[in-house]
Write a sequence for this structure.
């Protein structure tokens, strides 16, 4: 299936709607108005209707959207119908926090299938133990299992080299949680989570 | 000083320029072209010039921007001239990772001045120990020290209650790292860091 050409910001909002629908579904709600779904996602109803138009025709005037049908369509478009395998580089505090997200990630369609670090061995996460493999084995694992997504949570100075070897092994999309910018080839997508930048953005809005 | 009215997305990009300038400064570079600075921040030069226009007149045609002058102006506008005190709620793996960012945050103008958790006591972070206070003491601390910013990294189900008590005590801006949406009064700004949403966004771009 060719993917519809949806702008990146709209894809983000689709994820928010998707999550809102999952909550409604968990609460046995079967239909939802565009106003209510927009509110749950923190956007304006006009924005929501514009975003959902990328998916084709949904909803009946006066009746709202079918929670199940819209949720399925979004799952399909966002590519999370099957659990998407993800590898994690870096098993420090942040990496351990990510490993602890297990159930949260699974709900959204992701699974961390292997964790790599310079320090390999068993790592305590919450109330269970997780095996951390030597980071040198990362590329081979990615190749063998055809993994396409990685989370990079190694210390900043090590991030670029990890990204280079992982991308060479087949990674197409990276969530960069290291405190360093990453240079990657054009076919690779990087989302960066930079908490200091988020704080700086907030500080502007403080009176 | 009245703050210029800058759109939220532009404030984000100003943070990126700010960081790029800090790197240039650390490398003894004294002037930079708009093309080079735009590239470092991953935006188009036209976007950069538009964003910097919010700050007034900068740069000389053919000579580029003074790294020092532009950096100072951005520091001023972004409100990070002095270290901004931040409180942290939640000292699990993610909280510990945030506490470990000490130097990284300080470089951007922030300091976690206190950490709170249900489980108080000394917590090992990297190679030193940090005192974690009982979360019930959070509001009093916020009031006494006039803290305006908080990072919430508690488990999802606990996040809203923590936000309520912290906001009632004076918090105006919150970085929400809990896996739950937060409802706050209109005068409070929330930035949400949701790693599952970032992954979902990435997965759309995988072929």
């Amino acid at each position: 299936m060719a993917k519809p050409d949806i702008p990146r910001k709209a894809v983000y909002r689709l994820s928010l709607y998707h999550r809102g629908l999952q909550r409604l579904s968990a609460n046995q709600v079967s239909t939802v108005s565009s106003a209510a779904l927009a509110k749950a996602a923190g956007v304006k109803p006009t924005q929501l209707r514009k975003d959902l138009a990328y998916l084709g025709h949904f909803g009946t005037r006066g009746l709202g959207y079918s929670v199940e049908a819209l949720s399925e369509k979004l799952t399909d478009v966002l590519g999370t119908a099957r659990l998407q395998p993800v590898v994690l580089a870096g098993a420090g505090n942040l990496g351990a926090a990510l490993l602890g997200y297990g159930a949260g990630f699974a709900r959204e369609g992701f699974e961390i299938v292997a964790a790599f670090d310079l320090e390999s061995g068993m790592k305590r996460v919450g109330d269970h133990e997780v095996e951390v493999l030597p980071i040198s084995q990362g590329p081979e694992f990615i190749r063998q299992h055809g993994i396409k997504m990685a989370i990079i949570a190694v210390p900043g100075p090590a991030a670029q080299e990890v990204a280079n070897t992982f991308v060479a092994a087949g990674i197409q999309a990276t969530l960069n949680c290291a405190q360093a910018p990453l240079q990657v080839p054009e076919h690779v997508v990087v989302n960066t989570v930079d908490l200091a930048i988020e704080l700086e953005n907030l500080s502007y809005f403080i009176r």
Summary: The mean pLDDT of chain B is 87.
